[in-house]
UniProtKB/TrEMBL annotation:
Residues 85-456 form the PRONE domain. This is PRONE domain-containing protein. One of its GO terms (molecular function) is guanyl-nucleotide exchange factor activity. The keyword RNA-binding does not apply. PROSITE patterns: PRONE. It comes from Asparagus officinalis.
Amino acid sequence: MENLSVCDENSEDRLNTDIECSTPGAESLDYSRTISEISTYSEQSSSDEPLNLGWPVSKLAARASPLLRKLGMKQHMTKVLGLKSCDGEASNSDIELMRERFSKLLLGEDMSGSGKGVCTAVAISNAITNLYATIFGQCWRLEPLSQEKKAMWRREMDCLLSVCDYIVELCPSLQTLPDGTSLEVMESRPRSDIYINLPALEKLDMMLLEILDSFQSTEFWYVDEGNQSPSPRISSSFRRVIHRNNEKWWLPIPCVPDYGLNEKSRKDLQKKRECASQIHKAAMAINASILAEMSIPDSYLASLPKSGRMSIGDSIYRYMSTTDKFSPEYILDCLDITSEHEALELADRVEAAVYVWRRKANMNNPKSSWDIVKDLMADGDKNVTLASRAESLLLCLKQRYPGLSQTTLDSSKIQYNRDVGQAILESYSRVLESLAFSIVSWINDVLYIDGSVKKQ
């Protein structure tokens, strides 16, 4: 790693003195620990020289290169905190606040300092999840996000995602010297999964915020269900559907004029719903691909039942093993799933059966008897078929219930994951998937109210 000159900001006489130090590389990320609390650091300064890693950081994301000099970091904090002082320096209280947040991140959610905190990957994943809950946890309406929350979201996410600037891989490349000689050198490049998925997620993030910003002035409005005071804004449509969401009584009720929305507004809502739905599918696909790449924890494999039949039950197993033309939609139609809890429980059992049958299909028997070999081949083909059918059933279940929570396997993968890059991509795609799903649900609520009013 290239040695850098570190400048001491306390004395002008020492600014020209170079102090050589080794900057941490991609493999040294494991030493740092983060915390899930909300941090206050923000965008990086573009005035400092970027670190030359052999590839343009701007292609990966619209973020400046990380700042590594003490003087540059102090200038960076001044811009982050938005301070305006006569001497151009951040106040001591704000610097102490920044230092406190960094310290908590390094402790890995363990304030005792005993080294029992969570690993870096889990801490960053928790930080992104908690940041989303802080910014969007109380958003239940189709309205623009406040400037303060929007700035906080971009500021915090920019710092959390900046970790990806250091996650690189070395690839051989040819370099031509001035004398015309070609030399093969190792060049730093962003890791392939981050290079592909992170710009896509940032684009989806921007599109979702643009959708919310587009609801500046609308024909519909919201009223809290507990608001019984007479008001000209409470139309008859509100009174007719006031008990529509008995399970979530705290959510505000959308209201439309007595004659309903005009055709232009309705088409605009449908167009935005389709856009948010496509974003939801894209984020879900990225999240599923990242989770598929994560290794399965040994604790989950140890907890699997002895047979797939025991996991899914006799009725489902009988249909899956005896039917020539398997239809997962038919199974779900026959099952009486009345709540998300039941759907999640079924997903856990089906997913466990998938890995039980996969493990049995990959088992090797040391005996060489031809009859035993034929039996193993028959059982292996049967296990492969059952595992494939269980996978299609699980996929159909997740498509039918898109708001389904994480399965036990997914939670275990996130909990025991040690790859920082995968943790960032998984948590970022998961929160964007949740936001897109919420926007689609909110638009559906408005269209439902509009449809019920026009039917009257």
